[in-house]
Design goal:
heterodimer, A: 379 residues, mainly alpha, B: ABC transporter involved in vitamin B12 uptake, BtuC, two-stranded antiparallel sheet, 2 strands, globular, Nucleoside ABC transporter membrane protein (chain A), cell membrane (chain A), transmembrane helix (chain A), transmembrane transporter activity (chain A), transmembrane (chain A)
Amino acid sequence: MSTPYAKLPAWADYGLIPLINLFVAFVVAGFVVLLVGENPLRAAVILVEGAFGKGTGIAFTLFYATTFIFTGLSVAVAAHCGLFNIGTEGQAYIAGLGIAIVCLSFDSTLPWWLTFPLAIVAAAVVGALWALIPAYLQAKRGSHIVITTIMFNFIAASIMVYLLVGPLKPAASQAPQTRNFLAGAELPKLNWIIELFGAKIRSAPLNISFLLALAMAFLVWLLIWRTKLGYEMRTYGHSPKAARYAGISETRIIITAMMISGALAGMMALNPVMGDQHNVAIDFVSGAGFVGIAVALMGRLHPVGIVLAAILFGMLYQGGAELAFEMPAISRDMIVIIQGLVILFAGALEHMFRPYIQALFASFSPRSVGMEAVKGKGV
Amino acid sequence: MDVFNAIVQTLDSTIRLSVPLLLACLAGLYSERAGIFDIGLEGKMLVGAFAGAAAASVFHSAFLGLGMAILISVAFAMIHGFASITHRGNQIVSGVAINFIAAGSTIILGQAWFQQGGRTPALQPGERFEAITLPGADAVRDVPIVGPIYAELLSGHSILVYLAFAMVPFTWWVLFRTRFGLRLRAVGENPAAVDTAGISVAWLRYRALICTGILTGIAGAYLSMVQNGGFVKDMTAGKGYIALAALIFAKWKPVNAMFACLLFGFLDALSIRLQGSPLPIIGKVPVQFMQALPYILTVILLAGFIGKAIPPRAGGVPYVKER
């Protein structure tokens, strides 16, 4: 079968097309704002000002971005192996259990710089184990990973609700959450970095897990493009048949990729739990796992793209909060629409504008789309 | 007699709770049999529920509400088709996108139009689908055993309930006894063969998605106009995903789908009825366990421990014509 699409220069493929898709998503979102009876341009200005106008806004934007870097990387690692991990949400949620166990056990005895590594390991292990079962079923039994991970999201939610209204809840409390952690499980804030640039910050939850997220983005890049395992994963993602022919173990590669994906998803929980809330509460993930899908698609599965896309979504979350304050008709659910539109245009419809852009490139410079040979023959 | 009444009531709520699942499950059956995975059942139900309740309360007509629910739901199905058939995008990604757009837009538009925190106004009597009393139901109510079964269990549901169950044999007939059904199933197994026979794969898949949209629209209308007197945000609450689970559980067959949905509806009814009161032998079962049971059962089924669920062969693969 022929490949449906010809080549474009890399900058168009990785820069121009995502930007066009993003632009269209925002234009459609603008129509929704119009439908609600507000001015989309004013909404956009409020949104950007809310996210980057003040130091506090920037800190909040980066705090949200931290969460989305983790979930975006999680989705991307699985996607490089041809697996759609829709279970990032559940893996992050259940990882809260691992963090809760570590924090509740050690927060009174250990300092944060000892609790933090333990919590990282606990979150990663629990997240990875929650991804292991769907991965095993996919590898050994051929059960579709999309369906099993969706089911595991719901199962994780049930388990967490059961634990948070029962065993993990302090007897005296009514709220469905663990007791608040002590200082030994509170992550240090990073707001001073932004204050270095002269901005004032009142209180924002930006914390050290932002650095962990950036480190993970680098490690994912290293894994995918600079190691044998990453090469095998990409091979399997491109063509399972070729991978099998090359002697790559299907079971091993699926399970490894999914467990790495689950571990990254699990680490996401560190940011809100230890960095902000200082307890594990019901629904603390609140859709961040699904945002990860949008982030990974926007970032074209590359860590650099994912970090940028995560900051974009962080901006939407923080700016969206300001927007809801300024324009009561537009609540934070507007972000959910934008998120859906981004997934639609950057994911499902990513090739919609490609033929037109190709035609455009071909008319200016045939060489850039590999048409030189055809022309050469005519001479 | 108390036990008997309790059983009849539980079965009655089983029927009520399984209707939206059944409609959504049959909706998924059409698209998945045609080779289009549809994660977006949830979102299409949600927009159907919103459009139905909104139109019914504005136009004061239950049937206009139902019509609008179907229209909007089909429109969303067409977005899915445009992305996954015309542009050969990833069907799962497209479905996820539809769920988000539905979840966000129903709340935003609901708040902008009705200013009740994302709800639609409570529907008045003429704007909902009322319960239908079957002939003679009141007369036989006092007859032991048969009376309550007829009067409580079979009679007293809205027209959409009877429609949902009538859709089961109808869907079976369409899929297995008509030319359209044969082609629809063929396009889900081997689209190239259908293409060779000179039939448009894309148009066939679009028609399958129209069927899906109609049924999810009715499912949504049932939620907001029968089960509840108006739209509440996120009122589908994962029912689309349970329907998807039921579809796999039913191994993509209409009659099995009905039994799977009744089973999942029964689990739901049971967990509401028990509310944490202890069961004989097993002891107290947490509500959360009962709620998770459909998902757990589906995973076990998918793992191949209860028979094997084999999806349509071309499911999830966009069709590219050789050129």
